Amino acid sequence: MSQSCALLRRAIPALLAPLVLIALAVQAWGAGIELPQEDVNHPVSIRAGEAAHWKQGSYDVYVLRGDVEIRQGETVARAPEGVLWLDRAEPYTGRSSKVIAYLEGPRNSVRVDFGRGGDPHALTGSKSQTLVDRTWLGWFYTQSGIELSVPVPAEDPNVKPAIFERGLEARDPARFGVQPAQLIRQEELAAPVGQAVAPQGRRVRFVPRSGGRWNLNSAADPNTNERITTGTSGVQILIDGLDQLGSVSIETDRFVVWSANTGLTNPAGQQMDLNDGPLELYLEGNIVFRQGDRVIYADRLFYNVRQESGIVLEAEMLTPVPQFQGLLRIKADVLQQVNRQQFQAYNAALTSSRLGVPRYWLQSQNVNVIDMQSQAIDPVTGLPAVNPANGQPAVEHRMLATARDNYIYLFETPVFYWPTISTDLTSPTYYFENIRVKSDQVFGQQLLIDWDLYQLLGIQNAPENSKWSLSTDYLSQRGFALGTNYRYDNENLFGVPGAYRGFFDAWGLKDDGTDNLGRDRRVIEPETTWRGRALANHRQFLPNDFQLTAEFGVISDRNFLEQYYELEWDTLKDQDTGFELKQYLDNASWSIAADVRLNAFFTQTQGARLDHFTMGQSLLFDRLTWYEHSSVGYADMQVASTPTNPVDLAKFQLLPWEVQGGGLKAFSRQEIDLPVELGALKVVPYLLGEAAYWGSDINQQELSRVYGQGGVRASLPMWTADPNVQSELFNLNGLAHKVTFEAEYFFAQASQNLDQLPLYDAIDDDSTEAFRRRMLFNTFGLTFGDQIPKQFDARYFALRQALQSNVASPSAEIADDLTEVRLGIKQRWQTKRGLPGQERIVDWIVLDVDAVLFPQADRDNFGENLGLVDYDFQWHVGDRLTFLSDGFFDIFDQGLRQVTVGALLSRPEAGNLYIGLRSTEGPISSNVLAASTSYRMSEKWIATAGTSIDFSQAGNLGQNLAFTRVGESFLIKVGMSFDASRDNFSVNFGLEPRFLPSSRLGRVGGVQIPPAGALGLE
């Protein structure tokens, strides 16, 4: 339902587009311009001797000199100099690229040849083949690309050339009633010397439909002082030169124009002055309105230009809409523009299907839209904003829409009805945001509905860029649940300048079931019956480079997130409560922060602190570089409470660094570098030192620590290239080998041991700490009172990884005696791939290797001189096939040794395949084979599958298999999955409209299945 309702949100502006477009088109009558109407299938080719280039809004502007030539099909325009505005269309949008050309030169030096067919705009009996003049302004449209052959453009000039200003003047749409450039035969040219540049604007022409003849009658009405002009036997109205619309074509069998008696005397050759009396337009019979990708079919149309009101009967339209690939199909019995601000559509239906009778559509009996306009305000200055395109005051639009008697039809049968939809079209939703139906053995049968609270409460003037939803969920094995989510992203909160964004999310229920968390935790009685969480985050950018960050997180019990929000539990940061106010001062910053623990079942530190950072400060005439981090505050560690359910209690023991206590915490860590370049070798000797104080150590005693570290870092880049390396088998076109050797030696001493301090600054998330508590029993088979062996203690792993070598280390407690020699080599083998002249440099092979030597192995690396060895290998054999491998090795007894090898095969729009094997030895032993594939078996069927099998003790881990049918209007998925850890088997059914796909069902080879109708009739 949420997908179908969202159709209306994006369709309403397009639904009312015919009247808006016709209003703009009719109001554009009044000025002449000559435009080459070339076949859009021909590319536009541009050549010149000199070029300057810059950006102007969405246009690329080129000032060209020296034999300027523009060619499209048989049309060729030549001039000594000119200005071009290029608007390149995005690929696969169906939109044409546009070139606006202004050419000028001495007398008769601008020449436009239209080829054997002559000028398609000429309205006389014999079409002219050549235009010769001093100036010319024209539009080119193409769907075959723009070919630009000019020298490398110069930098954006500080002062724009005079020809650019003259081109802007010629393009000025406000210059009505001026003399158009004349299309005449070459032998008739007689332009006087010194003739001014002919300013040019827009042009409206009446021509017979399909090249035939027409019956035209124009007469004055003495009673009303109006002129009534009628035409039959088919007419085509061409409007060119509209910056907003491009070129517009309106075809009809019959028309009537009411105009001022002095305005329109000959529609086939004269122009009309809109400032002289009223103007009304009536079209009837097989009306076809074309503008860009938009095509409108209608039976009758009436528009009053002066009153800005009109009506279209029996309208059908194919139109693009924002943020949607393809075209939207809309039908309405009546489209009416009541006035400039109000539009109505009656019995309106919309779909993306191109079938005569679509498989589904959304239908509304009446749609009413009110455009509320107001002066736009510049958020930076607080003053009225100005439109940079025309210098006029900018206007903000709020489109308030109301739709009544709304039905959703599936296979010509109404399946859903809602009486009224009322929304703000700038950020609309329609009651339902999401509806999901699920079934599994953990939660049972599930119906999950998200509602738009703005709609339910009737709030139309909602804050801009905000969403507020209500969740009403039913889980058969758990109970009913309620939740709400509010998100915002805006400027100037309470009048304070600056952007801000954030969210609030709350969800809870009265849980009548038991938790299933996998393996030995499949039946856990919740610690509380009423369960849920509330989470909020807010970030605001304030004046003077201040930043305010605040967060709030409260959870009912220790297992709630792992059961109901497993992805957040595994991947996101801890849900804390606190704030931070920070100011950035160039390469320095200072902040004040405070935290409080609200969830007693997690170990967290509460307190307040003041921090100051300086990064990369130059000293002594750039000879030295200084870094520092200083902090002072109060830190109070609160350890996790003991579980009350027996399953968790049986395997719960606090980690060694989890100790209740608190007090003053202050430290300052400084580093001085002396960069030296010895040819290609870069050497950086450095000294790092710290003085720190804790009011409470692991024994609730005061502790002071002095830490010092000295060392030298070095790097040496090298490369070689051989363009003669060629191989069709390995897709090689030349080969370059780039290598960077890296090394660091340091010696560190600390006055206190690492294990004397609690981890006030945690290095693991709550989820990882919960897992580590169970490792004592599950992995090592130990009992209460024992501790995890030191070599598997997270603190010592962080120490060996040299976390303390960073001035901005996230944990001040990690520091101890240590001596290391760190070695690394970064390698890239690169080649060129692509079409001739369009080659790009790509990485063919990537191999990075790092290792650490420990001179004092017994103290620092459990008796082994070598450790922390890792590598990363990627071999891009071609653009579709890649071999991957990575590994990590600790050499000491039972140290972690892990290797992954795999291959990725990708064929865009056809499918992809990954197969990998990960072997892990150490405290945990496993050999996991993982494979996944997505394959488009035919135009109508997609298969997806995945499996994970551990050839060690764990055995089968899980599988999934699904088939998706690609219908003309729907993606239908049937699949099954098995989670061995939870012993949970499920069968899934999904139905997703192709109109607004959510990217879940229809993605093959990394490419999304296009919406229905995007590629025409399927």
Summarize the structure.
With 1018 residues, the chain is mostly beta strands.
Description:
By secondary structure, the protein is mostly beta strands. 8% of the residues lie in helices and 53% in strands. The chain contains 10 helices and 52 strands. The strands form 4 sheets. The protein has a 27-stranded antiparallel β-sheet that branches. Strands 10, 11, 12, 13, 14, 15, 16, 17, 18, 19, 20, 21, 22 and 23 form a 14-stranded antiparallel β-sheet that branches. It is globular and about 110 Å long. Residues 1-15, 24-38, 120-127, 173-201 and 268-276 have low confidence and may be disordered.
Radius of gyration over C-alpha positions, nearest whole angstrom: 36 Å
**How many strands, what sense, and barrel or not for the largest sheet?**
27 strands, antiparallel
Count of DSSP-assigned helices: 10
Find the structural class using helix and strand composition: mainly beta
Q: CA-to-CA gap between the ends?
A: 24 Å
Query: Averaging pLDDT over every residue, what do you get?
Result: 81
Strand content: over 45%
* Number of E strands: 52
Which residues sit in consecutive blocks of at least 5 with pLDDT less than 50?
1-15, 24-38, 120-127, 173-201, 268-276
Large-scale geometry: globular
Roughly what percent helix? Answer: under 10%
